[in-house]
Amino acid sequence: MTSVPTVLDERFRAAAAASGELDVAYDVLDDTPVGPLLVGVSERGLCRVGFDPEPDAELERLARRFGPRVLRSPHALDRVRRELDEYFVGRRHAFDLELDLRATPEFHRRVLAQLNRVEYGHTTTYGALAAEVGAPRAARAVGTVMNRNPLPIVLPCHRVVGANGSLTGYGGGLERKEWLLRLEGALL
Asked: Could you give the 3-state DSSP secondary structure of residue 143?
């Protein structure tokens, strides 16, 4: 078996991403302060940010949700990488990325839209978020939405805390949630 030269492989991946033929371009960002992140973009926008990526499982999920043409194409994620880097050093307080939430159920999209209004450096509670989407008794359902958030960090589920202000559940682990809140100045 012969391998493809690196330059040719990179050109192929860049051409595939530029052609619009991909359903999802992805990369694994190994050097973030919160550990490796698998990041995916579709033609509509950012569609996945995953902690502790198991690439095979993540790629299978992306293919089921967005289509089978999923390819690692680092250059297709340059803007996402730049905005995340700026966020992680404290220079970015809001993301300017197009988001692709078409594979997300309607209630989840409503909750995530409201979540996206929680400002940098502030927190809210599951109950308050439920009330803001017109479902005041659905705090647990909001917790489920946070747990299944396809775009953590960008859609800041780390800013949601328990009714008493305690740090509770986070798909990336409580140590990451605490780190992100400290970065934003929401925890001293």
From this structure: helix
Under DSSP, is residue 86 helix (H, G, I), strand (E, B) or coil? helix
Query: Phi and psi dihedrals of 139, rounded to 5?
Result: -60, -40
CATH topology of domain 6-88: Double Stranded RNA Binding Domain (3.30.160)
Per-residue pLDDT of the chain (188 residues; tens, 9 = 90+): 557 566 655 665 566 566 667 999 999 999 999 999 999 999 999 999 999 878 789 999 999 999 999 999 999 999 999 999 999 999 999 999 999 999 999 999 999 999 999 999 999 999 999 999 999 999 999 999 999 999 999 999 999 999 999 998 888 999 999 999 999 999 86
Q: Spot the catalytic one: 99, 111, 118, 157.
A: 157
CB 80 within 8 A of CB 73: no
Structural class in CATH, domain 106-184: mainly alpha
pTM: 0.89
Domain chopping of the chain, boundaries: 6-88, 106-184
d(CA 13, CA 94) in angstroms, rounded, equals 29
98 Cβ contact list (under 8 Å, min separation 6)? 44, 45, 46
Catalytic: 47? no
Q: What are phi and psi of 65, to 5 degrees?
A: -85, -35
